[in-house]
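Lab notes, practical 5.
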Amino acid sequence: MLDQIFGENNFQSEIIWHRTLAKGLAFTGFPNNHDTVFLYGGGGEITFNRPYDPYDPDNLDAKTAGKYSHRDPDGRIYRLDNLINPNPNRPNLTYEFLGVKRVWRWTKERMEEAYENGIVVQTKPGAVPQMKRYLDEQEGRPIDTVWTDIPPINSQAKERLGYPTQKPLALLDRIVKTSSNPNDIVLDAFAGCATAMVAAQKSGRQWIGIDISPTACRVMAKRLRDVCGLPESEPLWKAGRGFVVRDLPWSEEKLRAIPPFEFENWAVIALGGIPNKVQVGDMGVDGRIYPVSASATPRKKREGELALKERWYPIQVKQRDKVGRPDIDSFEAMMMREECDKGFFVAFDYSSDAMTEVGRFFKQSGKVIIPLTVREILDEEIARKLA
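Output from the prediction step:
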């Protein structure tokens, strides 16, 4: 799906986030203890701010400790670095310093100032002067594609909200800072409990969060108020000091009163489908759901190929208090005509005859009609039926 959206040539890296808390051992196979992060570029110039793992002076590996083997009286760790210029043809940088004539990297004035400040040292008379390079002034080790330094959220974590797929703020903070600059806009199209939005806000980015779940939107708003101190206010949002929540589902009363086409769009989008662009000529289909393996824009048949039939599921929406059997009969006819294995029907309620017909149709044809009520959508009870 990411290759389809961004283009497979824009794939940059596969990153493994190694969770430090192992899950329970399975009877067979290896325990799953990592998540995968795919990095894509959007084409054109790509923003990439390389992250570093800071050095820990008290826990250096053997290679780093071997280099940074000197320590000042105040405890600062350093290594000695070369001051000789790799270009021998620099007359303006050729001079004698502390009894040693070389082509130096720095001018004589800068060299003398650094020597007075203790940055340049000569380990013994006649030795080539060298520069102190302090460990605490280095950026650290460049972080590679295996991230082992960010633990998952445990039961005692202060940031824990109880949201089932919540990720640690440190993980999203690294992703946001690596792939954007201050004041850039960060989009999280599956925002969950707003971790990416909090990371963006704290690092000086703008952001947009989207989620199909009204509960998630309420969790997001509370977290932004509590953690970031942002007020939910349209005037303050326009001034850059607040946020707004838009397009949450309405009540049943309001949904009964809106125009039919707008009601159809609301229901189809709530199911994750694609609504029709026109109000007439829909042949009994108000929207379509495309499985992950399918595409909403099928590839055209090439010369010598058989025609390709893309798999999709129809959605029929009725703004009625109670859908009857004739409506179900019409939907069944459409499913047979379009050779659809599964279809979704949305209404406020269904008659007993309609529900009986749904069962009969499955026994006779093996095709599934999933009847959903507006209340089930508003109460977010549809996940098990959409499986």
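Observations recorded by the TA: The chain has four domains: 1-54, 62-137, 153-248, 252-386. The first helix runs from residue 2 to 6.
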